[in-house]
Design a protein that fits this description.
Layout (H helix, E strand, L loop, with lengths): L2 E2 L7 E2 H8 L2 E3 L5 E2 L1 E2 L9 E4 L6 H6 L4 E5 L8 E5 L2 H11 L5 E2 L2 E2 L4 E2 L4 E2 L4 E2 L4 E2 L4 E2 L4 E2 L4 E2 L4 E2 L4 E2 L4 E2 L4 E2 L4 E2 L4 E5 L3 E3 L5 E3 L5 E4 L4 E2 L4 E4 L4 E4 L4 E2 L4 E2 L4 E2 L4 E2 L4 E2 L4 E2 L4 E2 L4 E2 L4 E2 L4 E2 L4 E2 L8 E3 L4 E2 H11 L2 H24 L7
Length: about 350
């Protein structure tokens, strides 16, 4: 199938770039910018980015033509694009100079598309894609090689499904959803009933799964469907690689789930929650709106809104920091306690053998 290239910028004057990004220009507006690069790897034709003070040395020595940075950031040794939201401006700059080719519309002859499947206009379906009976694909969506769409599944407009993604039967995917390689959306939830003889009978997982608009799902992430009811991922949520979301979970809007997060069945994660890498969430609890958990936190109980928790079992982050500062001193404190116990025993022994103070 032919490949349609994006409208790639040959280059932009720094003045025009600053206008497009909504930044305040300090420096030569006629400088030609053709790419985006890191501080250490940028040349005079590149725009770079600075936000973390730890990279101050790199800012002072960068060869970049220009740097995007905050309004109050220290001056760079080159032209500057100052912004109130520098990271967002950097994201927009990367988008401007993105050279990733966009596949041309069409259905590859090697694809297998059910006769009653509905395919919208300007859709790209790569070789070895399989689309089941009654499924629908929205306008301008892109399905890369080896994507599998189950019977009755619905994929909205302007979605991108990368190679080896599996969208199981009856799953509903909203608009502008990106699913990275190898993700499975709608796999069976982990449900078994124990028989009297100790063996286990599978509970059919026939519930629904809905992914709302503007969600991104990372590579090799799995999202399960329940036996009854639905699993739902709210609009704007971004899910990293290797995340497991169990059956019947409700994830709110604009939630961030970092790599290797695991969420057990029937948990509710409200809007604007952030869970860092390897956080584990037990089932049947609620993580309140705006709450966050630091890396490797284990959450066995519900978490209040707008709080930060750490550790296992999860406690207030400030309390965890105080406690963790003591951990490394525990052997020393144990030895000190043992020494105090010995001294106390010696003192009690000496006092026990002395005459009583009876006035004699």
């Amino acid at each position: 199938m032919p490949v349609r290239r994006n409208a790639i910028l040959a280059g932009l004057k720094l003045r025009e770039l600053s206008e497009r990004l909504g930044c305040r220009l300090e420096g030569d507006g006629d400088l030609e910018i053709v790419r985006v690069a890191g501080l250490d790897h940028a040349g005079p034709d590149a725009v770079s980015f600075f936000a973390n003070p730890r990279y101050g040395a790199a800012l002072r020595t960068t060869r970049a033509g220009a740097v995007i940075l905050g309004e109050d950031a220290p001056a760079a040794c080159c032209a500057m694009l100052r912004s109130r939201h520098p990271y967002l401006a950097f994201a927009d700059a990367v988008r401007l100079f993105d050279e990733t080719p966009r596949p041309a519309p069409g259905i590859a002859p090697q694809a297998v598309v059910a006769a009653d499947a509905s395919i919208g206009p300007e859709v790209h379906i790569a070789p070895f894609v399989v689309i089941g009976a009654g499924a629908s694909i929205g306008a301008r969506s892109i399905l890369h090689a080896f994507v599998s769409i189950g019977p009755g599944a619905r994929v909205g407009d302007d979605c991108v499904l990368h190679s080896h993604v599996a969208v199981r039967e009856r799953v509903v995917i909203g608009h502008r959803v990106v699913i990275q390689n190898g993700a499975v959306v709608g796999s069976d939830g982990y449900g078994f009933a124990r028989r009297p003889d100790g063996t286990h009978q599978k509970i059919p997982q026939i519930g629904g799964l809905v992914v709302e608009d503007d969600v991104e799902i990372g590579a090799n992430t799995t999202i399960d469907r329940p036996a009854v009811g639905e699993t739902r991922i709210g609009a704007g949520t971004k899910i990293d690689n290797l995340v497991q979301i169990a059956h019947g979970v409700t994830v709110g809007r604009n939630v961030l789930l970092a790599a290797q997060v695991g969420v057990a069945g029937s948990a509710t994660i409200e809007d604007d929650v952030t869970l860092a890498g390897q956080v584990g969430v037990a089932g049947h609890l609620t993580i309140g709106r705006g709450a966050s958990a630091t890396a490797q936190t284990g959450i066995p109980n519900s978490v209040d809104a707008n709080t930060m928790v750490s550790g296992y079992p999860a406690i207030d982050n400030r309390e965890w920091l105080k406690a963790s500062a003591v951990f490394r001193r525990l052997p020393e404190l144990r030895r000190a306690l043992a020494a105090l116990e010995r001294r106390l025993a010696d003192l009690e022994a000496r006092l026990g053998g002395a005459p009583e103070a009876d006035g004699r």
